Amino acid sequence: MLKIGLIGAGNRGKDIYANFILNSTDEAQIIAVAEPNKIKREQVISAHNIKPEFSFSTWEDFLKKDKFCDAIFLATGDDLHFEPITIAMEKGYDILLEKPMSNKAEECVKIADMAEFYGVKVMVCHVLRYTPFFSKLKELIDSDIIGDIIDIQHNENIGNFHFAHSFVRGNWRNSNESSPLILQKSCHDLDILSWLLNGSPCKQIASFGSLKHFKKENAPEGSSTRCLQCSLIDSCIYSPKKIYYNNIGSWPTLIATEIQTKEALTNSLEHNQYGRCVYHCDNNVVDNMVSIIEFENGVNVTFNLCAFTDEVCRTIKIMGTKGEIRGNDLKNNIEVYEFGKGQGRFDNGAITTITPEVLIGGHGGGDTGLMNDFIDLCLGKKNDSKTSPRTSLESHIMAFAAEKSRIEGKVININDFINSLR
Ligand SMILES: NC(=O)c1ccc[n+]([C@@H]2O[C@H](COP(=O)([O-])OP(=O)(O)OC[C@H]3O[C@@H](n4cnc5c(N)ncnc54)[C@H](O)[C@@H]3O)[C@@H](O)[C@H]2O)c1
Fold it and tell me: Ligand 1 atom 25: the closest Cα is on which residue?
């Protein structure tokens, strides 16, 4: 039985990972928790029957003790990963580390180095690698069905309400407190692109983007700074009535209030950050960003990251010498076009439509696959996993370089960028 300590009992730590351990495996157990929020900490203590000596208010208190369990889920905010992971690795814990590894490029490099130095097992939560959808894309590419890849177009469609919740009102609204959008939201996408290209390093990157819409000058006339007092609450696209009252008991309301009742939600929205007008927040992260990426193997990628989409999904088009693949992860649909094998007037490609298997669990089943992989790795059932700090470093470096490009208005050579960090 794998004994796990949870550090950071928020949405990821408590609602996803600890819940998985409780409900979906007999091979692991949460035996300790570190969380400053009393309500969340007590929810974990009661659900997992945690002994008083293994309940801590902070990661510092948890890690002051000698090693007392096998592994740690480290799911604190982006700016609170580096210090705890450094101590946890020194103490010999195996670790599931939430992405981004850190919100500072230098610290990401150090985490990758330290994991190898201490020889502990560390996985980074790049859940997309575990989804049947992206696994099928990789299998198709590796099968050579579309030949050599020439270009990829990738879109991360954040979804307007998701953006408003997480990146205007929520914890990732301000890059000074958390991370730039491309790191926080898209290190997954940059990781998947690198994975699909068999780990080919990135050569150079250029990005353009800005915060265009969610700012004071775009507030509708007559709007208030807090939504529950606003006369436009029923007509506003970003009304908390639609986003939160319709979702009591599930995301994103789980984040907007600790207690899942209408009364508790109203009480929370009266005071907390999720009851603020989207045009009057202290947000600074971009709501649109376009990147052009050249990989060492010659493949070019255009990557579109945008708040202004109806659906929350990823769409991809992979263009190869022998065919084309188009995919939409929300529709769980992949189309493969094989050039020269069709029947049409221009001998268009023969189309095969694939529906990848459906895995239960968040992120298109990726959360489930990640959990199983981590438990198997820690129990010694396998020697390797799909993610590691060294592998994740590639996507993180690309994200930091993209942000630098966007801010400084120049193309960033990745080797030069890496050298500047050492
Ligand atoms: N893998 C993914 O797809 C994915 C998705 C969303 C978020 N994330 C990442 O997961 C991490 C957590 O995100 P979240 O949505 O759960 O955030 P969250 O705010 O819900 O949870 C973080 C928790 O850490 C706790 N905390 C703060 N200070 C602490 C301390 N000193 N000691 C112990 N705990 C402390 C907070 O009280 C909070 O409960 C972030 O880095 C985020 O970027 C990953």
Answer: 8
Which ligand 1 atom sits closest to the C-alpha of 59? 32
Distance 412 CA to ligand 1 centre (A): 30
Report the residue among 6, 7, 11, 126 best suited for mutation to probe ligand 1: largest number of ligand atoms under 8 A from its CB: 11
Note if the pTM is more than 0.85: yes
Cα separation, 175 vs 183, in Å, equals 10
Q: How far is the CA of 81 from the centre of ligand 1 (A)?
A: 9
3-state DSSP call for residue 246? helix
| Domain topology for 129-214+284-360+391-421 | Dihydrodipicolinate Reductase; domain 2 (3.30.360)
**pLDDT one digit per residue (tens) for the chain, 422 residues:** 999 999 999 999 999 999 999 999 999 999 999 999 999 999 999 999 999 999 999 999 999 999 999 999 999 999 999 999 999 999 999 999 999 999 999 999 999 999 999 999 999 999 999 999 999 999 999 999 999 999 999 999 999 999 999 999 999 999 998 999 999 999 999 999 999 999 999 999 999 999 999 999 999 999 999 999 999 999 999 999 889 999 999 999 999 998 999 999 999 999 999 999 999 999 999 999 999 999 999 999 999 999 999 999 999 999 999 999 999 999 999 999 999 887 666 666 678 899 998 887 778 788 999 999 999 999 999 999 999 999 999 999 999 999 999 999 999 999 999 999 87
Distance 102 CA to ligand 1 centre (A): 12
| Triad 251, 256, 258: Cα angle to 5° | 95
Compute, in degrees rounded to 10, the torsion defined by CA atoms 184, 185, 187, 188: 140
Q: Is 305 helix (H, G, I), strand (E, B) or coil?
A: strand
When the candidates are 3.40.50.2300, 3.30.70.2740, 3.40.50.10860, 3.40.50.720, the CATH number that belongs to 2-126+368-387 is 3.40.50.720
Helix 105-118 vs helix 414-421: angle between axes, to the nearest 10 degrees? 70
- As for ligand 1, residues whose beta carbon falls within 6 Å of it are 7-13, 34-37, 40, 58-59, 75-78, 80, 98-99, 125, 127, 171, 184, 363
Closest of 99, 127, 84, 70 to residue 375, by C-alpha: 70
Rounded to whole angstroms, how far apart are CA atoms 311 and 334? 17
